[in-house]
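Interim report to the steering committee. The following record documents the input for ATP-binding cassette domain-containing protein (308 residues).
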Amino acid sequence: MPLSIRGLVKRYGDTAVVAGIDLDLHAGECFTLLGPNGAGKTTTLRCALGLSAPTAGEIRLTGLPVPARAREARARVGVVPQQDNLDPDFTCAENLLVYGRYFGLRDAEIAARIPELLAFAGLENRRDAKIGTLSGGMKRRLTLARALVNRPRLLVLDEPTTGLDPQARHLIWDRLKQLVRGGTTVLLTTHFMDEAERLADRLAILDAGRILTEGSPREVIAAHIEPQVVEVYGEYDDGNGGAPAWAAHHAAALAQRFEVSGETAFCYLTDPAPLLAHLAAQPGLRYLHRPANLEDVFLKLTGRELRD
C-alpha cells in the first residue's frame, strides 16, 4: 500500500492541527485532500513524508514506518511542493540532473531520462533555457517532471495548479491522468473543486484536522447533498428586494433546503419543476439550474465563512 495512516495527531502547543486521521491510499489511484485554509492538509502531507514528526499515530509510506525510515521511504516518492523551488542558476536539463543525484542516481542514468521527462512536461525545446525565462505554467510542469526523475511509486502534490491559467491547469490535469493510467499513485491537495471532480478516484474533505467525509466524488455528492441546485438572484417585488427577500417568503415552501449568501439564494432540491415554474412568473428574478457538485458539499460541510 503506498500510504497508510492510523490515528494521526499533530499538535502545536495546545492546538491540534491534525486531530486523529485514518487514511489508506490504494495503488494506482488518485486521492485528493480537500479542505479550507488551516484544515490540516499540508500538515498531514508533511507528517506522511516524515518532514514533520507526528504527536501520535502510525504512518507507513511505501510500506516503511515513518518517521523511523522516512528517508528510505521518500526515495520511492516524488513530491511537487506548493511553491516551485527550481534552481534559477541552472537550465531545465541541469535542474533534472542535479535533482536526480539526490536519489543516488548516476549521471548517465539521469541524462538518459531527461529527454523523456522534458517531453512529458512539454518542454522539449526548453532543455537549455534558464528558469528565469520560463512562464509560471512551464515552471510548474518542470517541477512535476523533476518529481518523476526517480520513477516514484507515489507522487505527492500540494496544490499543484494554484496560480496557473486555465490552459496550464488543463495540461497539468492531462499529465496527472496519464501518470495514473500508467500505474502511479497520486496524492494531491487542492482548493479547486472542479480539479478534484476531474482527477480524484477518491477524496476526503478535511476541516479542523478531521476527515468529514470520504469516497468517490459521486459517492460524496450523493451522500451529502440534494441532487439539484437552483441559484436565484436579481430583483424581487418590483425592485423593493432581491433574492434574499424572495427566499424569506418562498424558498422554504419550494426547496428542501436553502441558503442565502450575499445577494444569491441557493435552493437544494430533488424535483426542481415547481420552483422553476414559480420563478418563471417572477420577471425580476434570474436563476441558474444545475446538478449538485462538490463545491456544494464542501460549503455545506465546512461553511461559507471566509478562512484566512
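The longest strand covers residues 15-25. The committee is asked to note this result when reviewing the revised timeline.
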